[in-house]
């Protein structure tokens, strides 16, 4: 029987491969006295993918260090985050998560009896917890709540109150789970510092926070449940794993944003303390690495070929996935998977005429390319411009925009813009505005604003439409009471390629996509 690790060895196990630790001194002080109590939470939204092996691997480390570990299935959080999990699917998805996370832990040899599993709704609907939510809401500013959730909660121009509650509930979980520390990805950092700031105001202790780096997906960006090509699903068939790994970004010698290398570093090495590169004898035969740094160095020097790296990861990954696939091959779990994540029924493209009366579609908006002919400061408002914009009509339209703090006059002059043309004309400080210039905005302070830019070569008056919605005629005028634009705007977003989108469908003209200069992930309005 191996001797129990000492405080220093426990500290090393707990913190290895982490990107950041907040509260290192407190962590060491606790380890000298007793075992650390820690929790990891996961909102039960999209289907977990192979990147979830990264926190699972750290949970294995925590158990080796003697920690008391709680896993929280944050079902209520999943609903609060812009309803990523609809209420009617919440119980099913939480059940799916519980089964798949336990299957993952078993596949890497973690004894489940040493873990405590909790659902958020087990305690988050209690009288005491609810009262603390109200107490917290009386001291937290709207600015701090929005900032805390900026990396985690889906950001929209008009955020729902539920998304602003999210960081506060996550902070309170630390107290109600009676832990010393919370573990999560570095994308949670703003929520962690929010908790450190506000929990003491309720008389609760400040906790330790342990943060994993964000592992790049197969495309080189963050691995995401909503981006099919960036991730491998835990139930993907072997042929699908092979296909996705073959397409994965793995440039020879490039160790930056390399999802294949990151998976080896954060999952495979900690589990086995070694990694074997499999290759034919004519290329040097198999080679075992006992230190990740040696493998990364030889890949950087192009001693290890990307093809061999991918093939070796494929073999190791399938060994982890095989027991999960086998468990979910049972009739009960097949049925659960289908119920929790029902496939969308194929249907004809919705139009404003085929949808129920309260449904809105982007073809209802009359968006056109506009050419800015003149720009003047509003005579009675320092923050407003009055522009004359040609949209292909006999006379240019007068438009009032609050762009003075963000866009220089000379940049706006003669530029091509996207103008929403069927809003009801509105007097703004005595000048009637006959449209709205659409812009991208950052979701964090300080606020940045950029014009949406049609492709070069577009003509004034040319239609701007959302992909798949080019055939229907727009409304003659948007009725303010129906809030058609506001409902559609909630799903406007700037993609990682700076392309304007609605529900991940591009804004287009006949010459190509509409974009902004740099505000990735920004809102549009």
Automatic annotation (TrEMBL):
GO terms for molecular function: ATP binding; tRNA binding; tyrosine-tRNA ligase activity. One of its GO terms (cellular component) is nucleus. It is found in: Cytoplasm; Nucleus. Residues 339-359 are annotated as: Disordered. Gene3D superfamilies: HUPs, Nucleic acid-binding proteins, Tyrosyl-Transfer RNA Synthetase. Its EC number is 6.1.1.1. Residues 361-465 form the TRNA-binding domain. It is an enzyme of class 6 (ligase). Residues 345-355 have a biased composition (Basic and acidic residues). GO terms for biological process: response to stress; tyrosyl-tRNA aminoacylation. InterPro entries: aa-tRNA-synth_Ic (IPR002305), NA-bd_OB-fold (IPR012340), Rossmann-like_a/b/a_fold (IPR014729), tRNA-bd_dom (IPR002547), Tyr-tRNA-ligase (IPR002307), Tyrosine-tRNA_ligase_regulator (IPR051270). Keywords: Aminoacyl-tRNA synthetase, ATP-binding, Cytoplasm, Ligase, Nucleotide-binding, Nucleus, Protein biosynthesis, RNA-binding, tRNA-binding. It catalyses: tRNA(Tyr) + L-tyrosine + ATP = L-tyrosyl-tRNA(Tyr) + AMP + diphosphate + H(+). This is Tyrosine--tRNA ligase. It comes from Bucorvus abyssinicus. The lineage of its organism: Eukaryota, Metazoa, Chordata, Craniata, Vertebrata.
């Amino acid at each position: 029987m191996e001797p129990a690790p000492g405080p220093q060895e426990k500290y090393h196990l707990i913190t290895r491969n982490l990107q950041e630790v907040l509260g290192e001194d407190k962590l060491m002080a606790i380890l000298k006295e007793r075992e650390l109590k820690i929790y990891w939470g996961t909102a039960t939204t999209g289907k977990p993918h192979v990147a979830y092996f990264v926190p699972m691997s750290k949970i294995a480390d925590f158990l080796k260090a003697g920690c008391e570990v709680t896993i929280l299935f944050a079902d209520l959080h999943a609903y609060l985050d812009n309803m990523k999990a609809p209420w009617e699917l919440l119980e099913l998805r939480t059940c799916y998560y519980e089964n798949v996370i336990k299957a993952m832990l078993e596949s890497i040899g973690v004894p489940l009896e040493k873990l405590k599993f909790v659902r958020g709704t087990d305690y988050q609907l209690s009288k005491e917890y609810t009262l603390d939510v109200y107490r917290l809401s009386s001291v937290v500013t709207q600015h701090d709540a929005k900032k805390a959730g900026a990396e985690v909660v889906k950001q929209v121009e008009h955020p729902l109150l539920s998304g602003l509650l999210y960081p506060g509930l996550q902070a309170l979980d630390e107290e109600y789970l009676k832990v010393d520390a919370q573990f999560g990805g570095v994308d949670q950092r703003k929520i962690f510092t929010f908790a450190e700031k506000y929990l003491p105001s309720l008389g609760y202790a400040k906790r330790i926070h342990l943060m994993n780096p964000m592992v790049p997906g197969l495309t080189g960006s963050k691995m995401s449940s909503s981006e099919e090509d960036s991730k491998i699903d835990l139930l993907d068939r072997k042929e699908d794993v092979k296909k996705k790994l073959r397409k994965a970004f793995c440039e020879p010698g490039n160790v930056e944003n390399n999802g294949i290398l990151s998976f080896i570093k954060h999952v495979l090495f900690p589990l086995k303390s070694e990694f074997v590169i499999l290759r034919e004898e004519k290329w040097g035969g198999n080679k075992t690495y006992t230190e990740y740094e040696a493998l990364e160095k030889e890949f950087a020097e192009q001693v290890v070929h990307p093809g061999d790296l991918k093939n070796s990861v494929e073999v190791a990954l399938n060994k982890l996935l095989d027991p999960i696939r086998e468990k979910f091959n049972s009739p009960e779990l097949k049925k659960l998977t289908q119920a929790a994540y029902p496939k969308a029924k194929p249907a004809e493209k919705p139009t404003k005429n085929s949808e129920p009366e309260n449904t809105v579609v982007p073809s209802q908006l009359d968006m056109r390319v506009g050419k800015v002919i003149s720009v003047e400061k509003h005579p009675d408002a320092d923050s407003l411009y009055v522009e004359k914009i040609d949209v292909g009509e006999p006379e240019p339209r007068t438009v009032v925009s609050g762009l003075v703090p963000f866009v220089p006059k000379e940049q706006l002059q003669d530029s091509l813009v996207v103008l929403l043309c069927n809003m009801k004309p509105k007097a703004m400080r005595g000048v009637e505005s006959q449209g709205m210039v659409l812009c991208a905005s950052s979701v964090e302070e300080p606020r940045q604003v950029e014009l949406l830019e049609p492709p070069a070569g577009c003509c004034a008056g040319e239609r701007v439409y959302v992909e798949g919605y080019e055939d229907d005629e727009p409304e003659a005028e948007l009725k303010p009471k129906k809030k058609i634009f506001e409902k559609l705007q909630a799903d406007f977003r700037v993609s990682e390629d700076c392309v304007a989108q609605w529900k991940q469908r591009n804004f287009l003209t006949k010459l190509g996509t509409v974009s902004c200069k740099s505000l990735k992930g920004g809102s549009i309005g």
